[in-house]
């Protein structure tokens, strides 16, 4: 379902050119969950950004379903994110001015795929029923992360991308949040690519890949 | 479409959660529109005031018929002319004493009054009935009412005991004038069946010739071309228009600052929206939609606010709801439909202009890089460099326009470019100053002080630009108005040096009057004057003859002169020339003129150049006796009388009863002077109010930026608090920082403002009218303004500081919790 081929990306810092990705290949099948590890600065986030169409690769190809992401226009990439991707990234947090209920619904609303039954199932499974009227700043870190996962899955994406979704959580909460995510991913049958530093968490997914020196081993 | 609405709902949710921020955005937009509409209204009012000033000065706008002999004439002539289809309307004019004060009493006949002439004495259609039916009304301006210490409805008695009809307020009226029905006026002035003049309406149609109806008893007087005073006021009006333009600039920056902040606050939200699948294009269009809606609402509120603020600033106009629709009601400020349109357009265009820079910033920064302060800073740096370059280019363009351009447009362009360039250059200059401060110290907290101020600059720069422009405009307009006011007073003094001005009906009468005046001990001097037009170097110029007297030596507004100028004038071979003539014909002191006269060429040396504001013609001033020698046929009917001010009313009455001269040929200059000055003082008061208004708005802009900034400042302050600097100390540092930045800005604004004033006086005015107002600098005014600016910044800074002082430690701790 997701195919990444010979993907390269470099950044130009002050003087030198830093090659972050030097030809990454990666395949994820429908319904498969994959953990991505690698030391800090190895380019994990960069890879996820490229897959999400948030940034442009230097060369190589990314294909999601029948669509080739590389080479799409900004609007087409936005449509792709809206309809086929769910993102749980730290820097694209919840919208602080929307309540939990609105945060959950908003991506499915703008993609026109709002499904009330699925929405209430998500709320129930994520245990957010009592928190719907609250605002993000009134939630704990784990609760916020659960809302973020709910928002990403509400539009029934093809692929869920998560960048260290449990990074700020204690071990128990992290386990609990990840378990919820895995269950829901299995329920929708979408693909799941998660960046994590924790080998223990990585082991709980179907497969584990490691990014090193710009390549996936 | 549905998607757009959802996105809009998300965008608006920010304002719902942060009503304070929304309020600041609205206030910014409202203030800008209010500023604009207020200035339009005040400008219009100022123009009305000039018209009244011109009317008081005696300029006539309609042709009229006066007695050939000078004085009043029989009412029967009016009846005869009406029968012969002449569209004439009778006027009786005289002076009357009310409670020891002298007023001009005008009797009019509202039914036949030509529309063109009635502007100054307009009687509402509904009011005509009350005016005509007994006991009638005496129309009077507010100032006159106040100076007489009377109220509307009073029936004061004239000096001889006869009461006036009940007083009725008529704000359009010139001060010092009382208007009554002609029948009442004739009774009051004891001029039964007498008329001073007949106004001629513009109705066309066949009519008998004047001679066939009235013989040689009446003569036609054509309306004055624009009087000097009108030209001078035109100049002032142009400057006010420039002020409107400048205020628009200030308003634009305020909108800019408000909208820019609204964007920066929502940047994280915008990024999340993009990540969740909203394309840049769609996001931008929804942002524009949001902005236009907000601008529309704020624009309407601002217009209405501006209207009421203007009305409350003006001393004698009332605001009313009907005035808002553009109904022309005497005494009320009207908001014209085109102002509504332009005001809303300005609000929207201003918001969009402001948004383009914000949108460009948000769009051009890649989605991911926005999260990284380094990239942001880099972009900021690039932006600053761009601004600096822009400023330089604009300055160069201004210089070129100044050097090459030779039109009014070029003058305005220089003005606009100057302000724009200065605004663009401000952040760069502040950056350099702050960086200098940073380098000058080793103490960590002080280094941080400078560095952090510099960091804050990007958020504050728009508000600071608004402050800079508002201050500069204040200084510029203040200086201009003050210079103008002084010039005007000096000009009036020079022009109206004699207490009484007299123009006899004939030479015979003139010599009779002179003989009679010799018997009056209250006349200190009789100064004969004379004037004629000649062709000189292909252009018509005025030749003005005046007596050799201390009155002129002391008061004539000389700009430049040789040491023995007046002696040379007395001997008849020295001439004073007007500034316009000297500029136009490139004449300097010592140059030689050959003026053609009926008795041959008259050789003259230029011994002085004098200011002659408002006169479109060039003028040469010479000794009156020498003038008569060269022009033997010149009419010698004019004279000025020097009289102790207290004796003026009695003398005027005596001359009038004895020689039958009326208001146009016998004028009490002191009254004219003080009346004209009263009208101008009102206009000046309005400008002062406007200045305060602009400064207030800039203060609001500064306050709103500081308020919104104070929230985003927490992450910078929290670490300092954590390492043990008390909140009180932090608050002090914050205050000092704001004040120092505001002080630097204000100091930069002073020279900029003087430059603006110089542009108005020395470029715009010269290009438009050909003479140059003297440029005065008023240090006291500058210091005053500086203090006000610092005070305004202090007030603006205080609110966020109070917030910081009262902040619970948990809020500061939370900063760390949220930091990821
Ligand atoms: N906008 C950018 N400009 C320049 N260099 C960048 C930019 N973004 C990332 N980099 C560099 O690219 C490399 C990879 O960054 P990336 O964020 O993908 O690492 P990561 O594997 O996610 O690290 P971490 O585990 O710490 O999150 C880093 O060396 C980083 O400094
Ligand atoms: Mg990362």
List the helices and strands and how they pair.
The complex is a heterodimer of chains A (217) and B (820).
Chain A: E1 2-12, E2 17-28, E3 33-37, H1 44-51, E4 59-64, E5 67-68, H2 74-84, E6 85-88, H3 100-110, H4 116-126, H5 141-154, E7 159-163, H6 171-188, E8 191-195, H7 199-202, E9 207-212, E10 215-216
Parallel strand pairs in A: 3-8, 3-9, 6-7, 7-8
Antiparallel strand pairs in A: 1-2, 1-4, 4-5, 9-10
Helix pairs in contact in A: 3-5, 4-5, 5-6
Chain B: H1 2-17, H2 19-57, E1 64-67, E2 73-74, H3 75-83, E3 88-98, E4 101-108, H4 115-118, H5 127-132, E5 138-140, H6 142-148, E6 167-169, E7 177-181, H7 182-188, E8 194-195, E9 197-200, H8 210-214, E10 218-221, H9 228-265, H10 267-275, H11 280-313, H12 321-324, H13 337-364, H14 373-404, H15 408-439, H16 444-495, E11 500-503, H17 507-518, E12 523-536, E13 539-546, H18 550-555, E14 558-561, H19 565-571, E15 574-578, H20 579-584, E16 592-595, E17 602-610, E18 618-623, H21 624-630, E19 638-643, H22 648-659, E20 666-668, H23 669-722, H24 727-769, H25 779-806, H26 809-818
Parallel strand pairs in B: 4-7, 5-6, 13-18, 15-17
Antiparallel strand pairs in B: 1-9, 1-10, 2-8, 3-4, 3-9, 5-7, 11-19, 11-20, 12-13, 12-19, 14-17, 15-18, 16-17
The structure holds adenosine-5'-triphosphate and magnesium ion.
Magnesium ion binds next to helix 1 of chain A.
């Amino acid at each position: 379902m997701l195919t990444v081929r010979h993907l390269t990306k470099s950044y130009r810092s002050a003087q030198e050119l830093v090659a972050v990705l030097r030809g990454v290949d990666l395949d994820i099948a429908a319904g498969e969950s994959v953990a991505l590890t690698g030391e800090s600065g190895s380019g994990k986030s960069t890879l996820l950004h490229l897959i999400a169409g948030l940034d442009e690769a230097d060369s190589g190809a990314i294909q999601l379903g029948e669509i080739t992401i590389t080479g799409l226009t900004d609007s087409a990439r936005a449509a792709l994110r809206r309809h086929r991707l769910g993102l749980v990234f730290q820097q694209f947090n919840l919208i602080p001015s929307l309540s939990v209920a609105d945060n959950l619904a908003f991506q499915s609303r703008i993609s026109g795929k709002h499904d009330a039954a699925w929405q209430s199932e998500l709320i129930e499974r994520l245990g957010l029923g009592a928190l719907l009227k609250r605002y993000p700043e009134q939630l704990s870190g784990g609760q916020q992360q659960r809302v973020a996962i709910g928002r990403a899955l509400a539009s029934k994406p093809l692929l869920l991308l998560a960048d260290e979704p449990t990074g700020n959580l204690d071990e128990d909460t992290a386990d609990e949040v990840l378990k919820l995510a895995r269950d829901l991913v299995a329920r929708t049958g979408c693909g799941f690519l998660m960046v994590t530093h924790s080998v223990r968490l990585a082991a709980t997914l179907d497969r584990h890949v490691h990014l090193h020196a710009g390549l996936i081993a | 479409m549905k998607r757009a609405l959802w996105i809009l709902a998300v965008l608006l949710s920010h304002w719902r959660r942060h009503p304070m921020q929304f309020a600041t955005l609205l206030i910014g937009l409202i203030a800008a529109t209010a500023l604009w509409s207020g200035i339009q209204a005040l400008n219009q009012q100022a123009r009305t005031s000039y018209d009244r000033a011109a009317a008081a000065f005696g300029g006539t706008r309609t042709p009229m018929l006066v007695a050939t002999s000078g004085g009043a004439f029989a009412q029967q002539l009016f009846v005869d002319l009406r029968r012969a289809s002449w569209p004439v309307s009778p006027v009786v004019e005289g002076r009357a004493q009310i409670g020891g004060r002298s007023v001009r009493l005008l009797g009019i006949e509202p039914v036949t009054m030509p529309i063109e002439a009635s502007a100054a004495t307009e009687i509402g259609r509904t009011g005509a009935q009350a005016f005509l039916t007994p006991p009638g009304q005496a129309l009077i301006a507010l100032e006159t009412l106040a100076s007489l210490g009377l109220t509307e409805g009073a029936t004061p008695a004239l000096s001889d005991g006869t009461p006036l009809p009940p007083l009725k307020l008529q704000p359009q009226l010139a001060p010092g004038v009382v208007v009554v029905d002609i029948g009442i006026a004739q009774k009051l002035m004891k001029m039964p069946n007498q008329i001073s003049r007949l106004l001629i309406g513009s109705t066309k149609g066949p009519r008998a010739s004047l001679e066939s109806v009235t013989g040689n008893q009446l003569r036609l007087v054509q309306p004055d071309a624009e009087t000097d005073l009108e030209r001078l006021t035109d100049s002032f009006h142009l400057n006010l228009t420039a002020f409107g333009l400048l205020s628009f600039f200030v308003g634009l920056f305020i909108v800019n600052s408000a909208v820019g902040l609204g964007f920066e606050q929502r940047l994280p939200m915008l990024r999340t929206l993009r990540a969740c699948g909203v394309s840049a294009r769609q996001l931008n269009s929804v942002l524009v939609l949001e902005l236009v809606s907000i601008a529309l609402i704020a624009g309407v509120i601002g217009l209405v606010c501006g209207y009421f603020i203007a009305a409350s600033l003006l001393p004698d106009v009332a605001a009313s709801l009907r005035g808002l629709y553009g109904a022309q009601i005497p005494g009320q400020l009207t908001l014209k439909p085109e102002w509504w349109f332009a005001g809303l357009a300005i609000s929207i265009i201003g918001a969009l202009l402001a948004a383009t820079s914000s949108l460009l910033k948000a769009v051009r920064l890649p989605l991911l890089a926005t999260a990284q302060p380094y990239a942001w800073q880099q972009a900021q740096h690039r932006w600053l460099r761009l601004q600096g370059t822009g400023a330089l280019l604009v300055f160069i363009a201004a210089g070129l326009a100044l050097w090459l351009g030779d039109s009014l447009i070029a003058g305005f362009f220089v003005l606009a470019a100057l302000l724009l360039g200065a605004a663009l250059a401000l952040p760069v200059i502040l950056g350099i100053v702050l960086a200098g401060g940073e380098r000058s110290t080793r103490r960590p907290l002080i280094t941080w002080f400078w560095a952090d101020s510099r960091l804050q600059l990007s958020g504050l720069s728009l508000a600071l630009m608004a402050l800079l422009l508002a201050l500069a405009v204040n200084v510029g307009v203040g200086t201009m108005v003050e210079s103008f006011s002084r010039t005007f007073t000096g000009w009036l003094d020079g022009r109206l040096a004699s207490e009484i001005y007299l123009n006899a009906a004939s030479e015979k009468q003139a010599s009779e009057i002179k003989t009679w005046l010799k018997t009056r001990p209250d006349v200190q001097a009789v100064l004969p004057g004379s004037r004629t037009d000649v062709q000189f170097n292909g252009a018509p110029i005025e030749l003005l003859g005046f007596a050799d007297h201390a009155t002129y030596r002391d008061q004539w507004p000389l700009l430049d002169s040789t040491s023995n100028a007046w002696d040379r004038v007395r001997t008849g071979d020295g001439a004073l020339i007007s500034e316009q003539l000297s500029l136009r014909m490139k004449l300097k002191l010592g140059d030689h003129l050959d003026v053609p006269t009926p008795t041959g060429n008259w050789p003259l040396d230029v011994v002085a150049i004098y200011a002659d504001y408002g006169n479109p013609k060039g003028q040469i001033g010479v000794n009156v006796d020498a003038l008569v020698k060269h022009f033997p046929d010149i009419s010698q009917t004019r004279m000025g009388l020097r009289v102790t001010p207290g004796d003026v009313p009695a003398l005027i009455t005596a001359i009038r009863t004895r020689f039958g001269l009326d208001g146009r040929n016998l004028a009490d200059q002191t009254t004219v002077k003080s009346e004209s000055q009263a009208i101008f003082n009102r206009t000046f008061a309005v400008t002062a109010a406007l200045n305060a208004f602009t400064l207030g708005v800039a203060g609001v802009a500064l306050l709103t930026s500081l308020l919104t900034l104070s929230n985003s400042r927490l992450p910078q302050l929290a670490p300092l608090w954590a390492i043990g600097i008390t909140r009180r100390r932090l608050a002090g540092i914050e205050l000092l920082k704001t004040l120092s930045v505001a002080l630097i800005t204000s100091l930069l604004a002073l020279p900029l403002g003087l430059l603006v004033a110089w542009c108005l006086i020395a470029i715009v005015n010269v290009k438009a009218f050909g003479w140059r107002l003297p440029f005065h600098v008023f240090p006291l005014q500058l210091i005053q303004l500086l203090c006000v600016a610092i005070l305004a910044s202090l007030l603006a800074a205080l609110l966020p500081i109070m917030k910081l002082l009262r902040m619970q430690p948990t809020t500061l701790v939370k900063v760390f919790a949220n930091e990821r």
